[in-house]
Design brief:
Layout: E1 4-7, H1 18-26, H2 33-48, H3 54-65, H4 71-79, H5 86-95, E2 101-105, H6 109-118, E3 127-130, H7 131-134, H8 141-151, E4 158-162, H9 165-173, E5 177-180, H10 186-195
Parallel strand pairs: 1-2, 1-4, 2-3, 4-5
Helix pairs in contact: 1-4, 2-3
């Protein structure tokens, strides 16, 4: 029996594209977008895994990308990557009536503060494990084990939903009912949940 559900955020609840941010940054630098994408990614990982602070991330990013704008302008660009997944929002609202819902995401404090404030749907979740807080990232086994302890769930009674195959595979190794999600084919998730006997999916 399913007793809880855990959701990833990026490309599940909120489709996103880091290129949007990098394009805005590229407009204020002479470096090509392809170079920004390649050189900036390791810094992003350090930030989302809690190895550096927001201030350090922004200062190092500005230096690395040779961005000519201000600190505030860089932050504004870095936040502007998300869209709303209306179908998933409706599903969460229905599931919230029947189950405790949780978040497990590789993300930063900058993005977490932004999307929690912007999208009321996040009030439907009882708790969250974010990579920047716990110092590890999916698909590392440690972050799933932290989620199990913090949420007080049994993996065999819990559905985990994520868009990346590696994250789904790691969750399955930990005993979760893990489903790979594609926001372009929401119906596949609905069918998977119905097959697991999850309540609140259909009228």
């Amino acid at each position: 029996m399913i007793r809880a559900l855990i959701f990833d955020i990026g490309n599940v609840l909120l489709p996103f594209d880091f290129n949007r941010a990098l394009e805005r940054i590229q407009a204020r630098t002479h470096l090509p977008l392809s170079q920004l994408t390649q050189t900036h990614h390791p810094l992003q990982v350090s930030y989302e895994s809690g190895q550096i602070t927001l201030t350090q991330f922004v200062e190092r990013s500005i230096a690395l990308t040779q961005f000519t704008g201000t600190h505030a302008e860089f932050v504004a660009a870095w936040k502007a990557i998300f869209d709303e997944n209306a179908a998933m929002f409706r599903l969460v609202e229905r599931l919230h009536e029947h189950y405790p819902l949780y978040l497990l995401s590789n993300t930063s404090d900058l993005h977490a503060d932004y999307f929690i404030a912007k999208y009321p749907i996040f009030s439907s979740f009882s708790d969250s494990v974010f990579s920047y807080r716990v110092g590890c990232m999916k698909p590392e086994r440690a972050i799933y084990e932290i989620a199990v302890r913090q949420f007080v769930v049994q993996p065999e009674e819990t559905v985990f939903i994520d868009d990346l195959p590696a994250n789904v595979a790691a969750a399955r190794e930990c005993g979760f009912h893990a489903i790979q999600y594609d926001h372009r084919n929401h119906q596949h998730l609905v069918e998977e949940l119905v097959a697991l006997g999850v309540k609140g999916i259909v009228d």
